[in-house]
Amino acid sequence: MRDVTAGSEAILELLPMVFADPGEARARAEHVLRSGPSPLHASVAHQVLGIWQRDFGDLRIALRHLRRARDLAARAESADREADVLATLGVALVHAGRTRQGLASFERGVARGSGHTRARVLYRRAYVWWVLGRHREALEDVRRALPVLRQVADDIWTARALTLRATVHLALGAVDRAVADFTAAERLWDTTGQEHDKADAVESRGLAAFRSGDIPAALRLLDEAEERYAKLGTPTYNLSIRRCEVLRAAGLAPEALAEADAAIAELDRIGGQSTRKAELLLAASWAARSAGDAHTAIARAAVAVRLFAAQRRTWWETHARLVLIEARVAAGRRSGRMVADAAAVAEKLASFGSPAAPEASLLAGRIALALGWTADAERHLAVAARSRYGGPPPARVTGWAAQALRARAAGSRRGVLEACRRGLDVLDDHRMTLGASELRAHATAQGAELAALAQEVSLAQGSPRRLLAWSERWRATVLSAPPTRPPDDPALLSGLTAYREIAARAEAARMEGRPVPALEREQRRLEREVRSRTRHMGGAAAGAGYRFDVDRLLDRLGDGRLVELVVVDGRVHVLLCGQGRVRRFAGGSLDQAVAEAGHVQAALRRLAHPGAEARLPLVEEAGRRLQDLLLAGAVPHLGAGPVVIVPPGALHQVPWALLPALRERVLSVSPSAGSWLRARETEPPPRGRPVLVRGPGLATGGAEVPELAGRYGTATVLEDDEARVPRVLAELDGAGLAHLAAHGTFRADSPLFSALRMADGPLIVHDFERLARSPYRIILSSCETARLASVGADELLGVVTALLPLGTAGVVASSAPVNDAAVVPLMLALHKGLDTGLSLAEALRDARAALPGDAVHQATGWAFAAFGAA
């Protein structure tokens, strides 16, 4: 700075240190103030403390330090020093919600500074313009600052200016320009020691990756940025805002909401920036709306609107108004005023160049359609539909959804189906870029409306074949290709090992009645680490998915039948496939069927224990009611051959063998007709060997395993200390038949952590996904291993769905807790059937029939099902 003497250079080094080593900078500044400094040096120290408190602490304390720094700079009669502090104070005032005072501080700073200092002031005012959502002003100030910063070779501030310009470009949807600026900034950061700025650059690249549609890369970069911030000990509120956006787009809205709410609570605790709080409230409202929690979304968005308005942040306020209107619509509100409000929001967003403008136009069109205002709806939907040919996948899907609604309003069924097809193609390609099965499953939620519109039109056209094709188009798509095999990532492997060890210790402590809060906290931390690592995986090329063929399905069925249950507007429709055709029968209410299935599951849990025999007739009666709701008029047409049931996600808890018409049949279950067809066409591995595994803690000790070992003379038997996860996985890879007798647990909150208990801890779904090829046939002699979580549009996550895309053609598993002693004769009879060449479904039918007739054994037989086609 021009007016600062050479003797001040050591003091001035504290300013860049705030973003290189924040803790050290704060400590040195406090030391300077204790040493009786000159006004000039004290001004710098107070400014450093003000920056630290502004970005990492209490904003009220920050303002006190910065006002003191401003007054001391004036006393030192250093114009450039005063200008620099005025800029820092201006940023803090804007973050405190005092926008008018902040901008006035910048006016004085620009007037007082000159040359290099004025360029730095202009950069910081550009940052404030970005915070306020005034992007054109931000770009103008960066344009004025950059040449000066480059001329004096100020690499740090040049890199900051480039990073800011890139961030503004992203807000305007100019991803290529943003990437170019981020790349140039990162080259400069590599020449400096500004560790906080480097972490910010990684975070910004994560945002750019997200805007480019690469969610795995975005999550990886944001996680890397968080690790860098953690080393510096600095908070990550802005990172939380960005991660919430990525998580929401990935279909992980509940996780995004939890992160936003936690950050808000922490910000309130320390008295942090009002601007950041408003942005976090907006992120929380978006997440709550996406999670289906309209009331929370309304509450968060309403507060965000008020804060943004008070802060004079029109760009942000308009986005908050969009989510507020969407949440109110989701809560069932409709009015002409809301059409006008949504249209006004759309117009304002378009004037800002916001990528969210089409979403607002689509919202206005939806409300108008609900009110019967077809002319208004057409006008707004036509505007939204323009986005279908360009931009990131969500924007294009928005456009195709608008086009589908336009076609439906115009009475063009063909137009609806074409728009749905094109929109789902966009999502198909996007989904296949995701490597983690969890992300693929959640991503399908974005296509739920398009799939439902296509089903509705197909039903109205009276074509069961077309209804089947469209139902398959967006069902169990996560199984259409294997997930990307996790890389040999040492961090992931060590995380899985550590998770297994901690989970085993926690389980042992619980069994001894000891408290385990510390172990549970560590287990949750390791779960987050494993989940994050797996989400970093990229997927295959676009268009790599599997396409369903109705004719091939009918040909492969032979004399069998496949029953696909389709839900349209809350009603079940039964699609019966067989004898070269597809027929439709009307079923009952989905809600009634789900409630009935819940009662049956509860009864099966009780019947797993002796003494509940009186409930058996009640369970059988519930089976008859379920049959009336779910099979209805299709029962007389099931034929004498095998039957495959393809239920929607909400009905995967139904014990299908309990239904009278299915009780004595060769019966299998599949997540989709397409996945059954792929299983049917899967060839067994050459030289596939049997593997028998016996886990710890079973009441019978896995009594069937020794007898099966004698029956399969060549089988690999793993028990006691040999039944450890690494050894078990090594033997399962490429096996022809695997039998695992182990305690099973299903995690509804995190289905990919559902597990089988081995000697060294849980064998989880993430472990199975590391197999090059899972066993051709696998029998899970465990509780609840067939339970699945329904996510996304109609996707299912759990142990069974993890195995099917990896080479397993058939699985036998239980959907409920079972009696260990009753499982043993069932398993022995099942293997006896396999010895004679029967399929899993045939052998399971015969094994049920061979069980004793008491309630415990009958309930055990009904709890198990055959999945797939082996």
Automatic annotation (TrEMBL):
<feature type="domain" description="CHAT">
    <location>
        <begin position="621"/>
        <end position="868"/>
    </location>
</feature>
<dbReference type="InterPro" id="IPR024983">
    <property type="entry name" value="CHAT_dom"/>
</dbReference>
<dbReference type="InterPro" id="IPR011990">
    <property type="entry name" value="TPR-like_helical_dom_sf"/>
</dbReference>
<protein>
    <submittedName>
        <fullName>CHAT domain-containing protein</fullName>
    </submittedName>
</protein>
<dbReference type="InterPro" id="IPR019734">
    <property type="entry name" value="TPR_rpt"/>
</dbReference>
<dbReference type="Pfam" id="PF12770">
    <property type="entry name" value="CHAT"/>
</dbReference>
